[in-house]
Amino acid sequence: MTSLNEQLPPASSAAGAAGVAANEAVAPRARRRYSADLSALGEPALWGFGGALALGIIMIALFLMVVLYNGATTFWPKPIDRVELTDGTVIAGVERRGTIFRPDLPRLTEEQRAVVEENDGFAYRTLYQTANFDLYGDDFRWVADFEVAEVTQPADFYYFERQVWGVFVGRIAGMQINGVPMEYDAAVFRREQAAARDRFREIRRLERNDIGRINNLIERERLNQRRAILRQGEEAAAPTIAQSQERIAELQAEFQVLQARVNEIRALDRGFRVTLEEVGGRQIEPEMSQIVRYFAANNLSWTQKLGIYLSRWGEFVSAEPREANTQGGVLPAIFGTVAMTLLMVIFVAPFGVITALYLREYAKQGRITSIVRISVNNLAGVPSIVYGVFGLGFFAYTMGGTIDQLFYPENLPNPTFGKGGILWASLTLALLTVPVVIVATEEALAAVPRSMREGSLACGASKWQTIRYVVLPKALPGIMTGMILAMARGAGEVAPLMLVGVVKLAPALPIDGFYPFIHLDRSFMHLGFHIFDVGFQSRNSEAGKPMVFVTTLLLLTLIVIMNATAIIVRNRLKRKYATGQF
Prior knowledge:
By secondary structure, the protein is α+β, with helices and mostly antiparallel strands. The chain has a domain at about 335-505 and about 515-525: MetI-like fold (Orthogonal Bundle). The protein is about 60% helix and about 10% strand. It is built from 17 helices and 13 strands. The chain has helices at about 5, 10-40, 45-75, 110-120, 135, 185-230, 240-270, 300-320, 330-360, 365-380, 385-405, 420-445, 450-460, 465-490, 495-500, 525-535, 540-580, and strands at about 80-85, 90-100, 125-130, 140-145, 150, 160, 165-175, 180, 275, 285, 290-295, 320, 325-330. The strands form three sheets. Strands 6, 7, 8, 9, 10 and 11 form a six-stranded antiparallel beta sheet that branches. The chain is globular and about 95 Å long. The relative contact order is 0.08.
């Protein structure tokens, strides 16, 4: 069989070869032209931008998934393992996580070394929450698989959450009811433990409300005496001091009555105890009122687990922290975060809007105005800790110190406003976020059509009337966008707050029932600082790690709620001024 080239005449074969050569010469030019057309259309850049956007979305989604999973599962009750080791040691704890590691072979026995060498020198180990810090001096222990002889889950092991000393894992060996020892009875213990917790809450109520009120009044009387001495002198203030001393004597008598009631409840409480036994046989006898929550971790139905899970969440958002912030709730931190953010918005809104109005509507556009705008934009890039130093030096020490000297001299040398507090923290964050509001407000004002201004002025309105009734309403949605960005930035800032008011523990809220009821000079707790403190400042980072995730989840939820509320208000304003409907 002959090929096609062999069947063609010589002339046709030569023409075909020339055509192939011509196509090969044209192909590179066509490819270059196609590549140039793609570049002109911007498709490679579009692919790059799309890929970068997709990568960013994936990273954000993964981050949120990690936080959501770890935060949402933190409070779910887990079983207790009884682990018997090859050397005869027995431990009990809740499995937290595991990891692969390379053990030190010379320290292992021959059998353990053989097991590790079969796995190329690697082994798997599990971290158990053994709890019982008052007995062990630690909360966690790593256990390698080659050390384990047997793992069981006894039904009589309980998980106790205590007011102090953290978690206890073990059995109930007995109890005392009104000082009388007796065998453990589940129904009796459940009833008496609930009554003991009621007594604990009654003591807290008396100490914080009634005794706290008396202490507040005594302190006010003491300050009144000092104020009278500073203003009138000791001799002239003698009648006032005598009258104040009588009032203090009455308050102290009332205090003694309340303190006697507290001591009576505590004496009764000491007669109701429970004997707890750890896996090795050692026992402790805490008061029942110190048991916050307990459950048989290996003998729970799905409904009981759900009840414990919801109970823990309820405590988390409504109670105060305990055990170095690694357990309990974060109500003071929630209140402090929301209050500080709202105060910041109240301060930053007028400053930002007035500045933007002047720059856009009144200032003569020139070199000075341009320098001011450049300065405002540069302020947005200043590290937040610099604002914290400025807030501490200017607001707390300068302004606060002056206020103390003028209005609170009787408190000195103890400062009232001359230290960090929620007022100075809010003003510091207002300075931090005001550039965002200024830029957003300027953009919103510039977006209002010039024809609307001219129409208003042509109808006889003044410039201020035009701005107030025409420009500002149309620019409000854009201004709200700036406020949303400021809220998102301010609610998550931590570095400046560490200098101007945030503390590790502040159970006294800035708002209470004592005069003057709103205490802007008080220090406060913040969810962002709470995350840093629990994750990096607690005595055991492993114990605080679950609280880090759940607090992060709560902080993100609060920011989303506040931003969503502002977005809803912005959209309603936009709809109102666009269609006339609200």
